[in-house]
Amino acid sequence: MSKRVCILGDSITQGYNDFEKGGWADRLKIYFNKENSDHSFFNLGVSGDNTEDLLKRFKVEAEARNPEVFIVAIGINDSQYIETKSNPRIDIENFKNNLKTIKEIADNFSKNIVFIGLTKVNESKVMPIPWSITKYYDNENVQLYDQVIKDFCEENNIYFIEMFDLLEEENLSDGLHPDSEGHKKMFEKIKDFLVENKIIK
To answer: Could you give all domains of the chain from N- to C-terminal order, each with its CATH number?
Structure first.
């Protein structure tokens, strides 16, 4: 059976730094289209997006495509902080509310929602990030937001794919974005999960 699949997220979803096959989301498209050319995969990753940014476009993206499956990979930019850890881009309570709203919108189209867990960072390269000396990521904060996503999925019976321990520091060429090998690892784990749970065949 053919499926329309919306993959929504940030620059990692977009495929940043995978110069071989365009990222884990595009690798999914290639793999499943070989299995069933009637599948439609839409990579809707936007660089820099956090949950508030995603919510500004989530309903419009869904209405334009009416998907049977949502794959949502968002949150690492929410965990980013400006100068001090007391100043995250999106605080935890707003982050929780945004996840709830994402689910509520998605439920109007499909109950098949998969959240992708957050990947670790190489702190030696992102404290601060090279492209902004006031902005930081660290693994403590990333794990905090990742746990919020995981708990939200457990509470709402939503699929969750753990990612935090998947990548090595050498897979994070700029400290944040996976390289081609990192995207390949993510693709393999996500693909296997989708197949094993019969979400996409």
So the answer is: 4-196 (3.40.50.1110)
